[in-house]
Amino acid sequence: MQQVTIYTKETCPYCVMAKNLLKSKGVNEFKEIRVDLDPVQKDKMIEITGRMTVPQIFIGDTHVGGFDDLSALNKDGKLDQLLTN
Length: 85
Description:
The chain is α+β, with helices and mostly antiparallel strands. The chain is built from 4 helices and 4 strands, in the order E-H-E-H-E-E-H-H.
């Protein structure tokens, strides 16, 4: 299983949905980086993704994007493959 990193904020419903989708795929452990608690990490997230919104999800070294991107991968049947490669 690939390492999953997710940039989140506490009050973000899309972050919760992304974590729940990942858990439903058997991802019980992921690195969660709370950008609402650490402005340095928020700046890093923006620098590496070019996006200011959360969640921002990485599977291994692959930047998946946000919840909509994660959900689209799942609907296309590509999420399982990305998680196990």
